[in-house]
């Protein structure tokens, strides 16, 4: 019997070639999408979920502080916090202080022959019990027992020595705080599922030798990682530690909470001190899109299978006459559907393997594609589920015919089946048109973010660290730098923009009220020329100038700061207290130093020695200027490689996630449209074939090709038009919700939605038209012949 069913299945595939190909290829595209998104989702959920001894009990402590603009959540806590909590809370098994890689702890690692810029990671005892870090050489147990020992990455070992056998060798590390000679005690490799990226691991004890001031409660910058005892109630623990800082820092209003470390990667966005989302939003979005694409493919299967039911009516009638019951027929047709899903799965796996590198390029990550037992079970289950989902309705529908009606050809059109098929077509195009709208809006928002006037000049400005010998003699280097042809301006500043400015509070000024003491300011400190070099526009007053000897105690605010501070009258000439008494000499117009998802914050400029040089290049002379800057840099800083970056590149990097969403949305939308149009193509072909006698009669009676084409296309045109009416309000709600996450965004107007509707309508009509025109051009004699 099974052999008979399989033979019949292949015969059906051959007989219904067009619809079978559409079904299999449509299911293949849907399954390929599901497989890719499933593997990506698994990868994202496994990020930072290590298999180390205590990883399951690993939490990280976050700090909430109240500012004038709301609650700000940070992962930087006071230096003594980790060990104090481990001592005072019985729920904590032990704490691990960690100083994650930060630009001012970067340095140069040299072995006398090669010099490489390296990112430093300072870790406390117990780090290797909770973080995944595989040692290729040496022992993770004893690697950092000596304060003068370091572990280096596999890539760093290859770069410096060309081999991994480097344990016991000495290297020199050059950095403002951690200059010295160190012994290599191990070579590590960061696992693929780690979101961290670093080149060297130092002990936390070595960090405290260089920065002992961070042992004070009023200094921060340390990540506090805790391992809780098994069975600890996290909610109860959070309630207990919430106000802990107030017992250590007098008057502190900051609060603490713990979050599972494995959740930080996906749930890294906070509102009012509570995790509200993050990358999980993107994961859920594309998981939902994959489900909809798979559903569209299944709809094609249902529509084409029910539409072609008449081809199998005699088979059904004969089987019922010879004793087949409905359950047997349902099992047969479901089996055929599942078998077709497995055919589609093999094609889908081929598609996945072909586009896997391309997909990695879009998501910007290396995505492992390994077929273990769990993955095979998932794929088999997915195929069976797809087969059942796609085949259930056709199986029930086909098996429900009465044998006597089938054999006497007394079957009439089923109104329910007619409306189900129309409803499914409408659903397909609703999803497709919503996705077209989303792609248009995402594209315009990303374009807006990339081209918006930020209030400062980010073009042709580069920065590089003030390190090594340059930190000792920056003025001489800066003087020579300004003489290079093509360098229109040069200065220095602390930190980088966008997105890496300092933060401060505790200002005092005349007329200040209690609530205004909590205002948190971004600030940029650097040289005299930094404001004009960045092209920030002056609202009133002036910029820093060497002709004013007292500008070392001066301050320049942005417009938002002045408004937030509620300073009465003309602010120029008034004074504020911040690290001493400072005179306001200027107010600059607001400009965006953060991503456009953030509102402009209160900000000020002050003079100080920076840790980065910033250079403005003359357009058209960049290549020659960069070469001369490199030569000058090597003259002053022989052992340090020049590591520069452009402001424009850093700004574009802020929106990598949005561009990724846009790219994936574009390709998934194309898939949804392609699958929907394939289904309509198959239905149009079937409808044209079923109505060939009617078409022949109409042509004999004088109707033109255009009239026949219009008649055949009108039914589909109505369905697509209904789809547009349903899709546009849904698209408006969804795109409005997405745009609400940006402080600065495009305005939604009808053009996006009308355009999406026209694109969807045009594609559908082009697909249908290709079939209806072909049918209308056929010789009417062929349609009038008796079958």
Structure description:
With 787 residues, this protein is of the alpha+beta class. 48% of the residues lie in helices and 18% in strands. It has 24 helices and 27 strands. The strands form four sheets. Strands 1, 2, 3, 4, 5, 6, 7, 8, 9, 10, 11, 12 and 13 form a 13-stranded mixed beta sheet that branches. Strands 18, 19, 20, 21, 22, 23, 24 and 25 form an eight-stranded mixed beta sheet that branches. Helix 2 (17-46) packs across helix 11. The radius of gyration is 34 Å and the shape is globular. 36% of the residues are buried.
At a glance:
With 787 residues, the protein is of the alpha+beta class.
| Radius of gyration of CA atoms, rounded to a whole number | 34 Å
What is the tally of helical segments? 24
Distance between the termini: 32 Å
On the 0-100 scale, what is the average pLDDT? 82
Shape: globular
Tell me the fraction of residues in β-strands, as a range.
15-25%
**Main structural class:** alpha+beta
Please describe the topology of this protein.
Layout: H1 2-15, H2 17-46, E1 58-67, E2 70-74, H3 81-88, E3 92-99, E4 107-110, E5 115-118, E6 120-123, H4 127-130, E7 134-138, E8 149-153, H5 154-161, E9 170-174, E10 180-189, E11 200-203, H6 204-210, E12 223-228, H7 234-241, E13 255-260, H8 261-264, E14 269-271, E15 274-277, H9 279-307, H10 313-321, H11 326-363, H12 373-399, H13 403-407, H14 415-451, E16 461-465, H15 474-481, E17 487-493, E18 502-504, E19 508-509, E20 521-526, H16 530-533, E21 538-541, E22 554-558, H17 559-565, E23 575-577, E24 581-588, E25 603-607, E26 612-617, H18 622-636, E27 645-646, H19 647-653, H20 656-690, H21 692-700, H22 705-739, H23 750-776, H24 780-784
Parallel strand pairs: 6-11, 8-10, 20-25, 22-24
Antiparallel strand pairs: 1-2, 1-12, 1-13, 3-6, 3-12, 4-5, 4-9, 7-10, 8-11, 9-10, 14-15, 16-26, 16-27, 17-26, 18-20, 19-23, 21-24, 22-25, 23-24
């Amino acid at each position: 019997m099974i052999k008979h069913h399989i033979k019949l299945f292949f015969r059906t595939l051959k007989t219904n070639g067009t619809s079978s190909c559409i079904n299999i290829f449509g299911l293949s595209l849907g399954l390929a999408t599901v497989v890719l998104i499933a593997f990506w989702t698994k990868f994202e959920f496994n990020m930072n979920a290590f298999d180390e001894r205590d990883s399951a009990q690993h939490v990280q402590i976050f700090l909430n502080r109240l500012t004038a603009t709301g609650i700000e959540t940070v992962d930087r806590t006071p230096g003594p916090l980790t060990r104090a909590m481990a001592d005072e809370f019985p729920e904590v098994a032990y704490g691990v202080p960690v100083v994650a890689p930060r630009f001012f702890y970067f340095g140069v690692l040299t072995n006398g022959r090669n010099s490489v810029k390296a990112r430093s990671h300072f870790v406390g005892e117990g780090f290797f019990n909770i973080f995944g870090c595989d040692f290729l050489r040496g022992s993770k147990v004893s690697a950092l027992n000596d304060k003068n020992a370091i572990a280096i990455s596999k890539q760093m070992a290859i770069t410096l020595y060309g081999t991994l056998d480097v344990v016991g060798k000495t290297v020199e590390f050059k950095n403002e705080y951690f200059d010295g000679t160190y012994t290599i005690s191990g070579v590590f490799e960061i696992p693929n599922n780690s979101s961290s990226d670093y080149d060297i691991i130092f002990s936390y004890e070595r960090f405290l030798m260089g920065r002992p001031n961070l042992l004070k409660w009023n200094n921060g910058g340390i990540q506090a990682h805790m391992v809780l005892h098994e069975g600890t109630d996290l909610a109860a623990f959070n309630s207990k530690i919430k106000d802990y800082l107030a017992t250590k820092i007098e008057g502190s209003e900051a609060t603490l909470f713990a979050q599972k470390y494995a959740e930080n990667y996906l749930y890294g966005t906070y509102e009012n001190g509570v995790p509200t989302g993050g990358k999980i939003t993107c994961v859920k979005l594309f998981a939902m899109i994959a489900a909809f694409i798979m559903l569209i493919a299944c709809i094609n299967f249902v529509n084409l299978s029910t539409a072609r039911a008449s081809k199998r009516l005699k088979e059904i009638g004969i089987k019922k006459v010879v004793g087949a019951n409905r359950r047997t027929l349902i099992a047969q047709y479901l089996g055929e559907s599942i078998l077709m899903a497995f055919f589609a799965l093999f094609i889908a796996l081929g598609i996945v393997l072909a586009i896997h590198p391309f997909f990695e390029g879009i998501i910007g990550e290396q995505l492992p594609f390994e077929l273990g037992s769990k993955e095979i079970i998932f794929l088999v289950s997915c195929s069976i589920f797809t087969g059942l989902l796609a085949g259930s309705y056709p199986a029930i529908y086909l098996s429900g015919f009465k044998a006597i009606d089938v054999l006497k050809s007394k079957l009439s059109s089923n109104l329910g089946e007619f409306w189900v098929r129309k409803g499914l077509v409408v659903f397909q195009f609703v999803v497709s048109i919503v996705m077209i709208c989303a792609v248009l809006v995402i594209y315009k928002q990303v374009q807006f973010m990339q081209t918006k006037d930020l209030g400062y000049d980010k073009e042709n400005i580069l920065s590089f660290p003030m390190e090594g010998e340059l930190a000792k003699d920056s003025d001489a280097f800066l003087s020579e730098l300004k003489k290079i042809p093509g360098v229109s301006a040069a200065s220095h500043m602390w930190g980088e923009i966008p997105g890496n400015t300092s933060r401060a509070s505790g200002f005092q000024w005349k007329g200040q009220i209690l609530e205004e003491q909590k205002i948190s300011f971004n600030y940029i400190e650097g040289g005299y020329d930094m404001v004009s070099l960045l092209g920030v526009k002056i609202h009133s007053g002036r910029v820093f100038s060497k002709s004013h000897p007292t500008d070392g105690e001066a301050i320049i605010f942005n417009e938002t700061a002045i408004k937030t501070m509620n300073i009465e009258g003309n602010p120029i000439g008034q004074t504020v207290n911040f690290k001493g008494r400072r005179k306001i000499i200027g107010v600059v117009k607001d400009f965006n130093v953060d991503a456009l998802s953030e509102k402009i914050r209160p900000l000020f400029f002050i003079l100080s020695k920076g840790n980065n040089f910033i250079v403005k290049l003359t357009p058209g002379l960049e290549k020659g200027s960069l070469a001369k800057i490199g030569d000058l840099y090597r003259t002053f800083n022989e052992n340090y490689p020049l590591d520069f970056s452009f402001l424009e590149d850093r700004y574009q990097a802020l929106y990598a996630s949005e561009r990724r969403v846009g790219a994936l949305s574009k390709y998934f939308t194309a898939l949804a449209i392609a699958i929907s149009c394939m289904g309509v193509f198959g239905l149009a072909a079937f409808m044209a074939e079923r109505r060939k006698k009617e078409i022949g009669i109409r042509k004999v009676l004088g109707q033109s090709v255009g009239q026949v084409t219009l008649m055949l296309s009108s039914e589909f045109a109505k369905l697509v038009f209904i789809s547009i009416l349903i899709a546009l309000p849904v698209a408006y709600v969804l795109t409005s919700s997405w745009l609400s996450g940006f402080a600065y965004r495009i305005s939604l107007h009808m053009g996006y939605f009308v355009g999406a509707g026209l694109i969807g309508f045009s594609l559908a009509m082009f697909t249908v038209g290709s079939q209806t025109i072909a049918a209308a051009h056929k010789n009417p004699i062929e349609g009038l012949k008796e079958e």
